[in-house]
Design goal:
The structure is a single chain. The protein is mostly helical. It folds into 2 domains: about 140 residues, no CATH class; about 90 residues, no CATH class. The protein is built from 9 helices and 4 strands; from the N terminus they run E-H-H-H-E-H-H-E-E-H-H-H-H. It has a two-stranded antiparallel sheet. Helix 1 packs antiparallel against helix 2. The chain starts with 13 loop residues before the first strand and ends with a helix.
Amino acid sequence: MSNYVERKPDEPAYGRFSQRIRAVVIDWIIMMMLLVTAVFVGISTNSDRIGRVLGFAVLGIWLLYEPLLVSVAGSTIGHYRTNLRVVDNRTHGNISFIKAVVRVIIKGVLGIYSFITMATTSRHQALHDLLTRSTVQIRDLSKASPHHYVHARMELLNPAMPSAWRRMLVIIVYLAAVFVVALLVVYGIAWARLLSDACLTRHQCSLSENFVQWGFGLCWIGISILCIIQGWRGRLFGCRIEVERTQGSR
């Protein structure tokens, strides 16, 4: 008998990363248009008083835009245009204004990095969702295409999944191994003279040397993120799901 948790027929559909980024971009464009309009009006009137009023108005709208709309309507304009809404895990309705403010602050501080946890959580929650106990779901499933949403990752609810502590320990071991390999690669790059002494010691690098550094850094970050994601999903040696390990031995 399978140990996996069966999917419920009425289970919510969660917005994909691509849809959520589209919503962010739409909201950003709206804010930029508002700012440009305010600057244009301020310059056209040539009035310090009107300029100050417009400045405070734009600042207020910028600060309250997402918290107010999400808490009252469940979505910003960007969310609405991409068929998404923010849902409170406890009430299954709109989140409170305070939660909405906290979400915006966390998302503003962490930026794109806040979305990394979408790859490791069962309900595809970004860090600002997790910390405010909310999810981002499809508003109207009849208007959504299959590539707009995903359902919960049932493997993370599998009773055969190793404990969180074990998975975290294995992930740390892998990250340490990646770090050691990265150091060896750095020494190899220095030994092969792919980077000049001026670049290594005084950070005076040519364009090609910058490309080498950027490429190495992106590979390091990418492999580290992959280890975190695969480890949390129980797909790394040392913390694999027991069912998968049993099936693999047959």
